[in-house]
Amino acid sequence: MKINLGDLQGESGSRCYQETLSDLGLEALGDSSAAVVINLDRREQGDDLFLSGKVCTTLTLSCDRCLAAAQLPVEGKLALWLLAAERPELDPEEQDLIVLAPGQREVDISGLLIESIKLAIPPKVLCRTDCRGLCPNCGADLNQGQCGCDNMEIDDRWSALVEIRQELEGN
Fold it and tell me: Among 20, 21, 103, 167, which lies 20 to 30 A Cα-Cα from 54?
């Protein structure tokens, strides 16, 4: 997504932009026409601009337990310095910054948006909080009901504990 620097001129405040997952090359993460809303707050510091805000969208990912499609709203944060000249006190390794060339009219923040969205995806994606997953024997979706498999197969390494349990229950 390219931002026209002329749009950032004027008063400090919030700016809103909208793209789609397809525009950012993220169609694999959901409906390619899903809206990606970018809200940026602009603050001047001398000749430099500091942009901060959030990026919001809804992704369609596979549930980690049952593999069903899971609609997942995500909200990522972003912060970016647009510098008129090099600033030694700002380390490019620690902060996202772009040094603007004289006469530059636009800046591409697609990479920052993609990173922000991907970092907002939780490590465990669930279709719902009480998802029961798939049967380890037959692969049936346990959210649809019991599968009928005999799940009492016990690993031989646990047989001593099963015997102790049977003894305790017998007394």
Answer: 103
Alpha-carbon distance of 14 to 132, in angstroms, equals: 43
Q: Which residue type does 55 have?
A: V
Total length of the chain: 171
Start-to-end Cα distance in the chain: 71
Locate 66 and state its tokens.
Answer: 């049952």
CA distance 64 to 124: 6
In contact, 54 and 76? CB cutoff 8 Å? yes
Instruction: Report the distance separating Cα 20 and Cα 29, nearest Å.
Output: 11
Beta carbons of 29 and 43 less than 8 angstroms apart: no
Q: Which helix (H) or strand (E) holds 29?
A: none
List Cα–Cα distances, 69 to 27, 66, 121, 124, in angstroms: 15, 9, 15, 13
Q: Does residue 11 have a pLDDT over 80?
A: no
Which residue is associated with the tokens 């031989």?
156
Q: Is 133 helix (H, G, I), strand (E, B) or coil?
A: coil
Q: How far is CA 71 from CA 15, 31, 34, 58, in A?
A: 27, 10, 11, 7
Task: Flag whether pLDDT at 92 surpasses 70.
Answer: no
pTM: 0.77
